[in-house]
Structures are given as structure tokens and as C-alpha cells.
Amino acid sequence: MEAKLRLTRDTLIFLLEKGLKVLLITKSSLVTRDIDIIRKGNCSVSITITTTDNKTSSKLEPLASLPSARVKAIKKLASASIPCSVRIDPIIPGVNDVPEMLENLILKIAESGAKQVICSTYKAKADSLKRVLRDFPDLC
Question: Which pTM was predicted?
Fold first, then answer.
């Protein structure tokens, strides 16, 4: 929908014309479409990447860009001198908290040019817990 309507792009133009600072938080690699605008303003971008495993990512974030596309987006943004951070959010015990998986993700983030990593743990809510238990039956 965003690719067609360009609501984020139009909003970004509006906010930056007003001289505001903007932090874009997304799970979409589409953010690179707006590099021309982002680099002109007082902006930074934070991309959520919960895992480097596409199968796990597809279950956790079915409508989000694949992790590899998000890492490429960070690289592209960082190479355009745009301040970037990565959110590892949420960290879910038994799903994406495997030390080797997290280490691999942190290494990819460091290589991408991101300057900050933010982490958060999973806060179970009835609807999301039901989906996590459905998609990851070994947790039961």
C-alpha cells in the first residue's frame, strides 16, 4: 500500500519542510526509496530485524521485508551518510534468543553500518501469544 500511496514520503516532506527532526521506524526495506529526502533533513532511520532466519522472520513478521533486504537497506542508508540503528525487537525466548543466532545478527548489523542496536523482550498479549504458540508449537 505504501509503495502506491507514498504516504510516508509525503509526510516526511511535510515534516522536514517544518524543520522537525524525524526518526523513521520501520520493518520495510522500502525506506530506501526516500533516501533523497531523508538525507536532506534532520533524519535517522531505525529498522527492526528480529532474526536473520527467513523462515522464523516470515512467521513472526509475515508482511515485513525479509531480513536480508532490511540489512541491505541499512547498508544503503548508512552509505548515504544517514544515521541508522537496528531494533532487535522482540527477543522471544525459544524463538530468536539462541546465542549463535543473535551473534550472527549483531555481526550483520555491525557490518551494515548501523551505529546503534536497541533490544526489547517480548511482552505477551493474548492475541500475539496465541499466534506465537500456533507458529512455534515447540514452545508449548
Answer: 0.90
